[in-house]
Amino acid sequence: MTEYLIRRSLQSVLVLFLISILTFAMIHAAPGGPTQVLLAPGLSPEAAKIQAHNLGLDRSVPVQFLSWIGGMLQGDLGHTFKNNIPVGDILWPTVGHTMVLMIAAWLLSLIIAIPWGIYNSTREYGLSDQTSSFISYLGFAMPTFWFGIILQQYFALKRDWLPLSDMYDMDKQGNFGNLLLHLVLPVTVLSLGFLAAYVKYSRSSMLEVLNQDYIRTARAKGLTERKVVFRHALRNALIPIITILGLDLPILVGGAALTERVFNWPGMGRLFVDMAVAREYSVLMSITLVVSVFVVIGNLLADILYAVVDPRVQYGRGGGTAA
Amino acid sequence: MKRKQWISSITVFALIALLIVGCSKGNNTPGPASPSVSPSTSASPSPSDSPSPSPSAQSKDGGTLTISTFSDIVSVNPIFINDTSSGDIEQLVFAKLYDLDRQSNLAVEPWSLAAELPKVSADNKTYTIKLKNTAKWSDGQPITADDVKFTFDTIRTEETGAPGISQYDKIESITKADDYTLDIKLKQVYAPFQFSLYSSILPAHILKDVPLKSLKEDKFGVDPARTVTSGPWMFSEWKQGQYITLNRNPNYWGETKPHIDKIIYKIYADQNTEVQALLKGDTQMTEAVPLMQIDAIKKKDNLQVILKPGPTYEFIQFNFKDENFPDKYSPFKGQKTRQAIAYAVNRQGMVDNVLKGSGGLMNSPFLPGSWADPGAEAVNYEYSADKAKALLAEDGWKPGKDGILVKDGHRFSFELQYNAGNSRREQVSTIIQDNLKDVGIEVKPKGIDFATWIDQNITPGKFPAILLAWSLNNPDPDGESIFSSKYFPPTGQNGGWYVNKKADDLWVKGQQVVDQAERAKIYHELGKELSIDLPYVFLYQYGLPQAYDASKLKWEENDRPESSMGYGYLFHAINWWVE
């Protein structure tokens, strides 16, 4: 297992390196570089050259990449071109804000979706199943920002029940209760999206397991349905769900730019859009890298959790991945 | 040599930057013609033209005002400001050497650093400036002639990289006569210079040891602790992407003190979110409301919208260079052809249907109502497809097989570029397409990402035709760097490669006459010339509707916002109060 982990981690580093080369190249290939966006338009070409030199923008792209990656390895994410602020100062708070929002939405939807999906799998096409299907379709089909705006209209504008946007009221910065109030609407919007998917997954995964021979055997032994479902079926049904969760992990940091926009949530999704417009390469690269790290970790975690949930899965030299 | 002096254009460009998001804030000149640079200490109220303010109540001190915006600041170091949000904060935290009155004349206000209007020498080259001896920085240090000299010397040094350099590069020398008096000598007579004195001043005692080349990277303007300021409020806190807090400056030196204790400048993701926050009561003022949202705001009793044309004007710019067209032929070279396009485009329809009260027609590059405005001397092209067709025929265009005009084997079809996502330009470009189709011209509107557009089309002057706006931040009408053939890309902003020797000379003449009445004549003639020759089709001026909560935010009639000026939505904010 340890050996496997080491091998996977080394692979991950390589993957991250390749991702960063790719993103760096792509960002620099986009027309309209920082020189146009950042340098004052009234400047003469000579003065613009001086500025570009000061910003290190006159170096070749590979050299810029090496200097960036060199800083990165020492934990220096670089500075913004336009006002020389350390990227970390801007980035890390937004990562935190996004995670607060996304984890709340994610946990809430898991707590509801998995039991619901299981329940539905045992009562196929019942009222509950139909309802969840309806909600799923709604969740998939309805643009989140639109749903967000509707909620804002009813619960924040027509009635003064909930805050409209932001993380805190201006005079209650850092107040936990105030944060909870501000979470209600965006979490509702985001949960609906997650919920739609997770109920479907857990239901179908459960159904598949329930039709297996060993379940029939268990039933034939005379076990109660409850025991059949929870003891025998559930653990097996969780495996594909874990895969999905692992793959979804990066969403927790990448966030939902649109939802953040509607609720004016100061998160990373919003930051990315703003910085893309401003051509702030170092911020964009850092965000991409943070998200990539989570993708890699998410995949790794999913693999490890397989082993925890399913004893048949074993990692090691030559050992293939079962399941 | 110089490129320079595009005072207006610099900011103009900054403006474009704002337009990317579909908005901007205004800047410039209008106001009833005033014959000369007259000292006026406070605005003259003109009762008819503004939403009625709250019935004059007693002003009161204290409270918090929350203003919304949709983009974060970059830095509040005044000499590097190139975006509206940073400019907004500048208005509130920095005192200026001189201010502007409601008619955009240079003025000495109780909050200006200067004690009296500049004295101009007989040869019109030396400006003598006298400062108040009471002004102080927020750290208690006095504001003196050293600070003023330091500021202008810093801006005019190329190494600094200040965007406003062209406003100051006519300076030959700055001499300090005593602590509160200085003489600025120009290399040549340059009338627009008076408005270069409408400027914030840097604290020399904080910045004098910073090498000019690294001034831009300095924490001054970014770190509130280092940003010593001179205005009624201070730059107290900046939460990136969220808000900026400005607390009242306890060391404020002006005879007039601010009423409001704290101003929060809150950043929203976009304009629609801003409007929601205003409706909810989270904010009390927003500088620019999307036209679509105005009705929703008007429905709320406590909210007011100020809807007036502002100092920004939109136009269709033609390119005269053949190589910018697929068939290496610019169809715009005939003056009659350009006039035909002006007739064919329904400008009044755009003003009525797209701008919905926030705009008015433009016939020249000088804003209606300003002293430079040629008024009826400029040609007003009234919508007429018939006149357009006649002019096109006179200029040699004949209908081709598909109904599109042809001349010398060239089909009259061109691409009209604008920045994608700007809904006003999307609508207007479609109207232009329809209108020109009626006279046999094919228009292909094309939305392009803003940064890419600036980089690949506007700056190098490589486009067939564009739909763009200039925002005139500086009250001076000089526009040489936009229109003169001395200012082709990449150094100038005459991206259409327009040549008109008569106009070139008039722009220069306009800079060399200091008397405003005499200057006005030159600009009237220029306006007339350009309205006939049409480097652009001037479309309309427009403003961004400002909305505020009239039950909370109050001002006397004299201190109401002034839509016709740059940053006019914050005009006299020092005298506002909150209930």
TrEMBL record, chain A:
Family according to the record: Belongs to the binding-protein-dependent transport system permease family.
Biological processes annotated in GO: transmembrane transport
Superkingdom assignment: Bacteria
Membrane topology: Multi-pass membrane protein
Keywords: Cell membrane, Membrane, Transmembrane, Transmembrane helix, Transport
Location(s) in or outside the cell: Cell membrane
GO CC annotation terms, alphabetical: plasma membrane
Protein name (Swiss-Prot/TrEMBL): ABC transporter permease
UniProt cross-references to InterPro entries, sorted A to Z: BPD_transp_1_N, MetI-like, MetI-like_sf
Gene3D superfamilies, per database record: MetI-like (1.10.3720.10)
Automatic annotation (TrEMBL), chain B:
KW Transport (keyword) present: yes
Pfam families, alphabetized: SBP_bac_5 (PF00496)
A GO MF label: peptide transmembrane transporter activity
Statement: the UniProt record of this protein carries the keyword Signal: yes
All residue ranges annotated as the Solute-binding protein family domain in the record: 113-479
Sequence ranges of Low complexity compositional bias: 30-47
GO biological process: peptide transport
Region (Disordered): 29-62
Keywords: Signal, Transport
Family matches, as SUPFAM superfamilies: Periplasmic binding protein-like II
GO cellular component terms attached to this protein's record: ATP-binding cassette (ABC) transporter complex; periplasmic space
Stated family: Belongs to the bacterial solute-binding protein 5 family.
Protein name per UniProt: Peptide ABC transporter substrate-binding protein
Source organism per UniProt: Cohnella endophytica
